[in-house]
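The record is given unchanged here:
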Amino acid sequence: MDAARREKFAKFEALAASDDKPIKPERVVAELARVLDHDAIVVADPGTPCPYFSAYFPVRGTGRRLFSNRAHGALGYSMSAAVGAHFGRPGVKTVSVMGDGSFGFTVGELETVVRHKLPITFIVISNAVYGWIKAGQKTGFDQRYFSVDFTRTDHAAVAAAYGVKSWKVEDPRELGKVLKLALAHQGPTLVDILCQPLHEAKAPVSEWVA
């Protein structure tokens, strides 16, 4: 069991250390784990964040600290659920991690977040694709893609229009610094990270691993 775990995380750490662009999802998990308090709550959407945070994000303590509705597959879960998580434990930091598809489902919740001045940090893994669906079409339908790609949105600009302090990150070497700034800010923040598409990545899902 220990050997299998070491092998798994050795592969993860090699990808997480990459300075490739677009940023690899593994790098997002590793940088957030490095700068986030152990008591924090992470709420991951069932899109691109789900397989990576479920497989690799370290939960350092007892109690519910990592939430995802993986089995239900309801995009847009993370932003709204993070609001509930904050009110449930307002004394700890809450981080919402979502794909850009999920962002489009519930972006209006940012008005509520700003109005109540909730100190939640939102992270958007931006790859302009419904990643789970496209990865499934790649392996199950011989790369016959249908209705899975969309135009890239400047999520940082959208969030700023609501009054959220925001950043966009394209260089993996800047990611850790920006995450620290976002987590330290007293009000709501959003970090828009341009990431590798899920169907091109080494996602920890058995049917996609080649």
